């Protein structure tokens, strides 16, 4: 049997954050811990990726890691806003998609697409076939922002980006096959 490589010796690592919806604040906490307590390990990650909230943390870690804690506080503030709405996310006139866009644009600088290109892998799902696609090439800041928003697709609340339409990358992970019954 071939011995498994020792992670302490590996130089070309990848970091992945799963889709976790409103628990993305935990991913931010993990990213802060990597930065604070494992900077030498963090430097060995040549690429990072994720779906949904995980994609947001991946992009922030690569493009603007000095703002992790500030972003954490902004996410908690957004959660408090939603919590205080009469019907939460379902409150007429409230758009989580709009708030996410504002947060992403606050922390993603104009040159972030260059930093993220080939390093940040954003998981999205084809809306029609439910097949997964990883986006890792970005032509502009807007391209990166739209890819992140597509990965955070919330049914009935978010727009659908690109043709063919793509949505949250977590969807294709859950719906492996349309021919078989799946229990999650």
TrEMBL record:
The chain crosses the membrane at residues 12-34. PROSITE patterns: PNPLA. Residues 15-176 form the PNPLA domain. It comes from the Eukaryota. Keywords: Lipid metabolism, Membrane, Transmembrane, Transmembrane helix. A motif (GXGXXG) lies at residues 19-24. The keyword Glycoprotein does not apply. GO terms for biological process: lipid homeostasis; triglyceride catabolic process. A motif (GXSXG) lies at residues 50-54. Pfam families: Patatin. The keyword Phosphoprotein does not apply. InterPro entries: Acyl_Trfase/lysoPLipase (IPR016035), PLPL (IPR033562), PNPLA_dom (IPR002641). GO terms for molecular function: triacylglycerol lipase activity. This is Phospholipase, patatin family. It comes from Trichinella nativa.
